[in-house]
Amino acid sequence: GDSVTQMEGPVTLSEEAFLTINCTYTATGYPSLFWYVQYPGEGLQLLLKATKADDKGSNKGFEATYRKETTSFHLEKGSVQVSDSAVYFCALTAYSSASKIIFGSGTRLSIRP
Amino acid sequence: EADIYQTPRYLVIGTGKKITLECSQTMGHDKMYWYQQDPGMELHLIHYSYGVNSTEKGDLSSESTVSRIRTEHFPLTLESARPSHTSQYLCASSESQGLSYGYTFGSGTRLTVV
Hints:
Chain A has 113 residues and is mainly beta.
């Protein structure tokens, strides 16, 4: 079945460091791919998305590129801030999963001042 | 600005009590979902609905029940709360058509059963 695998955390970085959170997926056909962010005590918010191969989603300085050849959707940010501390979820939707969203297990990110 | 509302945000309740977690959305979405989030962060789908009078169980077995009498409202009920029900419960909704819209989530209800 369809699945999402993302790098395990926690990830701890210093402020202004470069961030990469790896995400790979397995799906039949052409899924849509998402990154969600969950700040402490809150629900999930859509951070960015990409709906076809080679699309780049971007928001708040975060970027991710839909790579069909490597089935990946890695999240990157050039210079992280303390306010980026949160849990990040990679996810996909696909017709093979009856359009229900499939989440990865989440990666907790902590940024040190 | 939230378009999907969950109440209460926090609830501490005794074992054996009946509780209902409320979820309402103002976007006219047909699809709605309930997730249980464990302390390890992983999300587990426990119920979903594709429209009025439609409800299905999710991937994780749950003792809770849901109803969908109105498009905008998708409450979750526990008839007899137990400490094992202590968790964060997240409600979400999505567009009916296509794969590209993603989900909109509420802020969650953190339930503690003592």
